[in-house]
Recover the amino acids of this structure.
């Protein structure tokens, strides 16, 4: 069982899919772990540490991937990169399939079994495999750190002989995993924290962390959550009332952190140019949805800009800004999943294709796109298939399942979501 980890090729990606800790455990499962030289450098994991854990270090991705049965990745690798792996090899990572169906189809044609960790169902046994939550948690933390770094005043109240410094006012838009961590971090730094979310259940969560909940709490709001814990689409009338309340609240804030992010869709616009201009000079907006265009009308993805004296932070891959910690958590998520794919007695790969975790996450198999949520879009975007792949195309249909496919990154609802639906926007990352 050959397990390969290569250096991430995506621009700005600093994380790595395995750490020396998880390498040792993968070897304990019977794996031969092969790592491309330098794969962990950006996350502060040198080759020497991997070698000490028992990994084989090789020069170049081609050598690492040759004959691999499992490829662990952070981002979706190009189909051309994995052409040397074993037939049917598992390529496991955050594959970001929505909006990239053509790339998923290319992986199918390449003959690999692509597994999207974002589609892991939110059930008890899979909590330790929830990559969205592990990465969103760190993004929420880092968002507050970025806010503090760009805010030219102190966060906590300070009582000194020279007088009192008032605490910063921080408003967190969205109370998913990222938002709740941002609330907790801002509180620890001494800010006066408020937050909003369209899910009624979020009110108690916000208040339990010491934040003040900001929302129009009418009958529509009280019914704004699905049985699976996801946000419903609100009426235009409610959106208008909430927007008015939000606008008046933002004008009084020193720091605003937005977290509404939906996989595969443009981020919803929550902060207008007028709202930015209503804030006092020196205020800071941190947009954790910048990678999808941003929740703020003036966000420029990948940049920190200033408008009317307000700093707007638009870093992408926010979890990657704390690459070592993010890699540690992500690698443990992957390890926990791989453990379910291995026969521990015989120390060999033994995938149970009927396991609900496998059904929920497998996108391609045997040359075809088999995930119901992706197959139809992939068919339209599919590159020219090989004859063998074309013959298998009619079988490209996923079995019924109870996964949370297409769930918003960073949310943590109870239960699972029916397949084939994407949730409405809510405070997540």
């Amino acid at each position: 069982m050959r397990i390969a980890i290569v250096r991430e090729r995506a621009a700005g990606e600093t994380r790595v899919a395995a750490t020396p800790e998880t390498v040792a455990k993968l070897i304990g499962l019977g794996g031969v772990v092969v790592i491309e030289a330098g794969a962990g450098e950006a996350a502060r994991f040198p080759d020497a540490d991997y070698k000490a854990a028992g990994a084989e270090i090789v020069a170049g991705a081609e050598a690492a991937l040759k004959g691999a049965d499992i490829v662990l990745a952070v981002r979706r690798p190009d189909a051309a990169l994995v052409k040397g792996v074993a037939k049917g090899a598992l390529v496991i990572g955050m594959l970001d399939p929505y909006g990239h169906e053509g790339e998923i189809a290319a992986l199918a044609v390449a003959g690999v079994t692509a597994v999207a960790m974002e589609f892991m169902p939110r059930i008890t046994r899979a909590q330790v495999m929830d990559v969205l939550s592990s990465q969103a948690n760190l993004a929420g933390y880092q968002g507050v750190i970025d806010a503090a770094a760009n805010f030219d005043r102190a966060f906590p109240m300070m009582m000194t002989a020279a007088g009192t410094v008032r605490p910063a006012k921080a408003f967190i838009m969205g109370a998913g995993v990222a938002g709740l961590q941002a609330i907790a971090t801002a509180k620890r730094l001494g800010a006066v924290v408020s937050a909003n979310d369209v899910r009624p259940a979020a009110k108690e969560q916000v208040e339990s962390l010491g934040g003040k909940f900001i929302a129009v709490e009418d009958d529509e709001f009280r019914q704004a959550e699905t049985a699976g814990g996801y946000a419903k689409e609100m009426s235009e009338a409610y959106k208008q009332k909430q927007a008015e309340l939000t606008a008046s609240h933002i004008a009084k804030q020193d720091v605003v952190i937005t977290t509404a992010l939906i996989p595969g869709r443009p981020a919803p616009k929550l902060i207008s140019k007028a709202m930015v201009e209503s804030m006092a000079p020196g205020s800071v907006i941190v947009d954790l949805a910048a990678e999808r265009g941003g929740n703020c009308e003036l966000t420029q993805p990948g940049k920190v800009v200033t408008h009317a004296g307000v700093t707007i932070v638009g870093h992408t891959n926010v979890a990657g800004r704390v690459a070592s910690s993010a890699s540690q958590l992500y690698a443990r998520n992957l390890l926990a999943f791989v453990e379910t794919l291995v026969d521990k007695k015989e120390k060999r790969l033994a995938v149970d294709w009927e396991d609900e975790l496998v059904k929920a996450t497998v996108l391609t198999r045997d040359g075809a796109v088999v995930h119901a949520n992706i197959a139809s879009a992939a068919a339209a975007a599919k590159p020219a298939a090989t004859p063998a792949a074309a013959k298998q195309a009619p079988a490209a249909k996923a079995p019924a399942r109870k996964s949370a496919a297409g769930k918003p990154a960073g949310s943590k609802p109870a239960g699972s979501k029916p397949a084939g639906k994407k949730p409405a926007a809510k405070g997540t990352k």
Summary: The first strand starts at residue 2 and ends at 5. The two ends are 34 Å apart (CA to CA). The first helix runs from residue 20 to 28.
